[in-house]
Amino acid sequence: MPLKIVGVSGILLAMLLAGCAGQQQGRLDLACRQGIETAYDELSFARSQGFSGSVAWSKATSLLGAAKVVEQVENYQQCVDNVEKARFYIRQSQGS
Prior knowledge:
Blueprint (H helix, E strand, L loop, with lengths): L1 H47 L5 H19 L3 H18 L3
Helix pairs in contact: 1-2, 1-3, 2-3
Protein name: Lipoprotein
Organism: Pontibacterium sinense
Keywords: Signal
């Protein structure tokens, strides 16, 4: 009988951990999607202000394109990393 209780407890623990992992994945998914949208808005604003940062804009655009690709294959951590790098180059183009 104790073996059966341990088995059920193990299954419940595994389900709990799987549920927590899914929640983290969901948050990264949201951060990725929102980050891409925000970064594109910031890039458009920087371009409209006429800041001279075409090299930084090109780097940011490439990183945002890569972020969209890795979002499609559900590599959300890499997506978030690419968005953060892109936003750095956008800020750099604005002289901040």
